[in-house]
Amino acid sequence: MNLKKAFALSAVGLLLAGCSTGETTIPDSSEVLMTIGDKKITKGTEYTLVKDSYGPSMAITLTNRLIYDKEIGRPEDVIQEAQQQLDDYASGEGFEDQIKSIGFESLEDYRDRALVPGVQSVRLQEKYFTDAKDEIIQNFDPVLAVIIQTDSEDNANKALEELKNGTNPGKVGATYAAQGASYNGVEQIVSTADTTLPTTLLNAIQDATKEGVLDQVFTNDTSTDDKEYYVASVISTDYDANLKKIISALSSNQTIQSDCQVYYLKKYNFEVHDQFLFDYYKATNPEYLVTRPDLAEAAKEDSSAN
Fold it and tell me: Which H or E run contains 239?
């Protein structure tokens, strides 16, 4: 039995066969697939092996694919993007033989079952920034701003005066930013994820009620002589207007990725009927068990206590 068929066999059990004992089963589990000597390998044996080896990740993968098709679908532009990826991969020698060796029937099959879900995944995360707008604002409070990081208070004050006089922030940064500074006057999304910024500066940006220059110099509040100084200007607090930049800035954030996963698991009422999988997620990703929010909360409390 090849890997594709084994996965398909497990998919039936993982998605369709929750039973009262908390262990999933498959139809015809006693049917013999192969023998070696006097030993028999049945469908049930194969299912248990695949479930124990790949079940946790495969269950989420299969669930996500159902979500992708519900939320994103397979419109022509998704297929075209996947096809472009396939064209790049297929230019390599022996690529088709490689994918067939792991269970795909053809290049088109590989595109539809491997590449399209990848494209859908990216689209879904982008969609999440709209669907969960209020939650993201509450947790990350993204603001479009320019920040200039200097190595002296004198340069910071000079940069502040230039900004107040309306000089282009990029030009001000080129003149006064410290060498190798992460913040040099370029517009960027600032959020609670920017943990390297002084708390006073981050709070001032996120609490700003209007756009414009923040009329003070901020420091990193270090007790050493290696101080850094910052000046900033708020460009826009409009989430919708800044959406593309917010997606670009935060899409790789691990918390965002986890929150996105949980958001759509909740939306579709994800339930786990197999005890092995339930116990695995309880230990590693309790947030996936969305019908049992108490487990994720308990895990957070344990983490905080430690």
Answer: none
